[in-house]
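User: Is it possible to get a 3D structure for a protein together with its bound compound? The compound here is zinc ion. I've pasted both below.
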Amino acid sequence: MACKTIPFYEFRPGLFEIDEFDCVSSFMVVGSERALLLDVGTGIGDLKWVVENRITDKPYQVAVSHNHGDHIGGAGFFDEIFIHPADMDNTDEGTAPTTEFRKRYAALIRKREGKYYAYDPDIDIRPWPHEPTWKPLEDGHVFDLGNRKVTAWYCPGHTAGELVFIDDLTHTLLCGDACNCNWLLNTTLAPTVRECAEISLKALQRIWAMRNQYDAVYNFHHDFRGFGSPLNPDVLPNLIICLEKLLDGTVEFKEIPDALSDNGATKTVALYQDVFISAMGGSIREEIQ
Ligand SMILES: [Zn+2]
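Assistant: Yes, that's possible. Here is the predicted structure of the complex:
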């Protein structure tokens, strides 16, 4: 039987962070009529059971921030999933939600954290029983949950179809991997890495310009913030400055340990205060030239 003890925490009224054993966080927004699940994790244990039996008995929809295997690895355990059209297909070997990717990623996190978790990788990381129905989710789409509305906003950069979400009841920005201290720039969005960085900068500036709509930012990994606690509010503006400095040639580069390597490899990052940017594949320093 799959593991049903996935930790979760209601950090604001009707707003839950679900911690998939330090791999990734999913979020659940529960309104007076309906609920919305944001991301479905790497697919460890039985998230669907936890959502339906421990978090809410209301009808709910499922939407995802982007198409990486740590965020949509559990997709095949749900029937219908909203995703931005640009992220609808993921055939990239390094990030697609295959059972191999899911097992490899979970093993990396277990090794990195050095903890015992309540799941058994052999039993709890199962192949999908079916392919879900993927439904297109466009910029500005509003999920009306009754007493609260959650709006999806397009924010490409980390992936071509990354979405962030704003809950109007609690003024919370739920930003997937669009904003992280350890931020990964997707280098396949445009013909050059410079153009990819420009697209990301513009997208993040738009979300930053909406800051009167939110007072807390939650990214979907909690390794640079406490579980249930918001991200340092400087991270989003610092990420924007870091991208600006990367583009105008004034950013500082540094070689740091790669947290996702299992053989002690390092990677080059562009650094500004508490934010560092690396290129998904290749060195950001070489790629930006
Ligand atoms: Zn990602």
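The two ends are 52 Å apart (CA to CA). The mean pLDDT is 96.
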